[in-house]
Design goal:
Largest sheet: 2 strands, antiparallel
Number of helices: 9
CATH superfamily of the domain at 6-133: Ankyrin repeat-containing domain
CATH class of the domain at 6-133: Mainly Alpha
Shape: globular
Length: about 190
């Protein structure tokens, strides 16, 4: 059934990733016809996957599709099981086919589970997007900050719990660096 022409195979792979169907993803990868880091064309009307150099974008123009690798798709669609499978199979953690790494996307879509998974396996927290942002710049929820800010050190459960329950705290200290924490709306 996977003797499909290459474009249809890529589409089937994309659909399996979006549905978090690890069985089908595994079967497609096992055919050997599709590289784990194949660049896919993904519907992206919100431009979550795209990052452009400043000055290179026309304000009135909006793309409907972006380029992404499988790991980007998993993060965008919260396909955690497929993300685990891809990482175990050696998917690239820090590639940017359209200007952002999977970690940039995880932060922008407020996906702490995928952000933690990527960080546990070596995603670079200080990688710069094409537009000049690190994953920390894309964080829009306070729950992502501890995982990102302290990714290179061990954070005690006591400190993490205090941070999450004490919303009045304005910053965390990690590796001799201060990171701001924004209070959640009441």
């Amino acid at each position: 059934s996977y003797g499909l022409p290459f474009p249809q195979l890529k589409r089937r792979f994309l659909e399996a990733l979006q549905a978090d169907d690890t069985g089908q993803v595994r079967q497609i990868l096992d055919t050997g016809r599709l590289d784990i880091d194949t660049v896919l064309e993904v519907d992206d009307p919100s431009m979550l996957l795209a990052s452009y150099k400043q000055g290179y974008w026309l304000p009135g123009h909006k793309l409907e599709k972006s380029w992404a690798m499988a790991l980007h798709v998993c993060v965008m669609y919260n396909s955690l099981e497929c993300a685990v499978l891809l990482i175990q199979e050696g998917a690239a953690l820090n590639k940017m086919p359209n200007g952002k790494t999977p970690l940039h996307v995880a932060c922008e879509v407020s996906n702490p589970e995928c952000a933690a998974l990527l960080l546990e396996h070596g995603a670079r927290v200080n990688s710069w997007s094409l537009s000049g942002h690190t994953p920390l710049h894309y964080c829009i929820t306070p729950s992502l900050w501890p995982a990102l800010a302290c990714s290179s050190s061990k954070v005690s459960a006591k400190h993490y719990n205090r941070l999450m329950t004490n919303r009045k705290q304005k910053e965390i200290h990690c590796n001799n660096t201060r990171f701001p924490i924004f209070e959640s709306p009441q």
